[in-house]
Structures are given as structure tokens and as C-alpha cells.
């Protein structure tokens, strides 16, 4: 993911971010009344905009949103309803500041992971999975939960793997497996060579016996939901 630099913004700049966020994620609005940390994402895709991460540690659960700031508009990319091509605010950003052609598999993979991250609708964050064993199951499961887990493991039979990319008509498809708010999801990120982006999801189970992500912590060197 992109490198980050913490910024110090004026009250006017923070007010501008707040107004943009209120249009898309109104549930985030009152967090601007508390301390927020604004970070600049150093990224190669959108040259005429600054991509900002606004992190709010309290009240729990901690949340973050992403905002694109340009000379003519400030666009909140997190949350919001899909537009005709995938995501309404992202569509506006792409119209104003299209990336260089997404013309290799590696660029498609990097771009899809970045754009999926900054446009996430998950308020509790997402854990990208590389294998079934990455799922942070509760240490103790009842019989019903154990049967669910065993059944999913058998049905999937190695299908969960790190994000990968394949060619598609007009561009690329990046497949990734994520855990979000207790749901196990297979997501396909469709990337056109001009940067247009949309996703399709298959939810395998909505109630995995795992922490939902109100609190995150490190386990075996990985940041995972722990509460």
C-alpha cells in the first residue's frame, strides 16, 4: 500500500474535508468534533489530486475515510452509493484525473488493491486473506460453529489464495478474498485499461465465528480483528 505522511491542516481545510465527507458518509461527521489525524497517501495513480486518509481513533470503533483533494473539487471516496460505472465519487475523480494506462498485470493488481482500499464501504476494516488458515477464528467454537467452519473449509478446498490478476475483455480482473465485519467474501475487482473500476462480490458466509473488527491488533506479525 502507499506510503503515508502526516499533515497539519488549517481549520478551513478541515472544514472542507468535513463538508465533503458529510455528503457521502454522514455517520463520520461528528468525528470531526474530536481529534482526527490526516495523512497524505503517496501514490502514483492520480497526479493532480492529493489522496488523504482521515483517521478517527475515537469513539470506538476507530474509523478512517479517504478523500481526494484537487484544485476544483474535494471528493470523499469512502462509502457512498455505487455510480453507473462503479462508484460515483471515484467516477468523478477518474473523469478529472485519469491514471496512466493500466497496461500490465502488475499495474492492474496494484491499482485494484489501492482503489478497492480507498473506496471501501466497510466501517470496521477488511482483512485480506491468503489462505483459509488466515481467518482469525475464536479460540473456542461450539458444535454448530465448528461444523460451519469445517464445512466451509471442505467446500472451498484451497480456493482462498492471495490476490491474483487475470486478463479480461477491456482490461483485468483482480480476485481477492476478504473478511469484513464477520463476513467471508470473494471479491472481483474489474479494472479497465483507462482506470475505470467496479467490483462484484460473492458472500460465502455472513456470520463467521470471528471478531468483527471493532478492535484490531497484531497476531503472528499480522494486523487482524481481535474484538
Give structural notes:
A hairpin with a 4-residue loop joins strand 4 and strand 5. The protein has 227 residues and is of the alpha+beta class. The chain is 22% helix and 33% strand. The protein has 4 helices and 12 strands, in the order βαββββααβαββββββ.
Order of helices and strands: EHEEEEHHEHEEEEEE
Arrangement of strands in the largest sheet: 1-2-3-4-5
| Nearest-integer average pLDDT | 90
Helix content: 10-25%
Shape: globular
pLDDT < 50 stretches: none
Distance between the termini: 24 Å
User: How large, in whole angstroms, is the Cα Rg?
Assistant: 18 Å
Major sheet characteristics:
5 strands, antiparallel
Multimer state = single chain
Structural class call reads: alpha+beta
The total count of strands amounts to 12
Into which percentage range does the β-strand content fall? 25-35%
Number of helices: 4
Q: What key attributes describe this structure?
A:
22% helix, five-stranded antiparallel sheet, 227 residues, 4 helices, 12 strands, alpha+beta, 33% strand
